[in-house]
Amino acid sequence: MDGRAERLRQARIDKGFETAAAAADAFGWNRNTYASNENGNAPFSYRRAKEYAAAFGVRPEWLYDAAGGMRPAAEGGLAPVIGRVGANPDGIVLFATGHDPGELAPIPPGGTDRAVALRVVGHSMRGVADDGALIYFEDQRTPPTPDMLGHVVVVETDTDEVLVKRLLRGSRPGLYDLESVAGPTRQDARLRWAAHITAIIPPFQARRIIRGAA
């Protein structure tokens, strides 16, 4: 799979579509054409990249040739709330669906146009973030770094799960243990990327600052 196809797949998953067919059906695309674009068998044009980018909320320049950031610069210093986390002990991030109008929240101090937020749902993350809180991170998609060890971070596994977990060393290089705030530790996971949490906004303040996307 080439880089363009891989970015398309990433954009589709981040938007909350589990399969290529689900995305194609939602936006009225031909299933076979879209699947061929995503698996790299049929490279897509910049014109098609603009269509896919608009549907998945990413920049067409990034989708087509990896130029610049993944998402458009946040307008008015706002970051998108891209999903929710903590509804169960697994710490799995549930992304917004393709038809969700979305929510926005102010970028925290030190944040960039790659800042995104997750809304905490439920009480399985008590002690880190309570029900209704916002968790911010920079959506940079870079490998784990040593300074993340021992900290609660946002990660993506090689099985397409995005999780909020405490990052620990695994049994050998390249593998990591993922400790839950509540629940069992997942051992020897392979990760595609990890990101520091840059801010946690308590529930009371989060309710005041979240706004609906235009």
Automatic annotation (TrEMBL):
One GO MF term attached to the UniProt entry: DNA binding
- InterPro entries from the xrefs? Cro/C1-type_HTH (IPR001387), Lambda_DNA-bd_dom_sf (IPR010982), LexA/Signal_pep-like_sf (IPR036286)
Tell me which residues make up the HTH cro/C1-type domain: 8-63
Superkingdom of this entry's organism? Bacteria
Protein name from the UniProt record: HTH cro/C1-type domain-containing protein
Source organism per entry reads Phenylobacterium zucineum (strain HLK1)
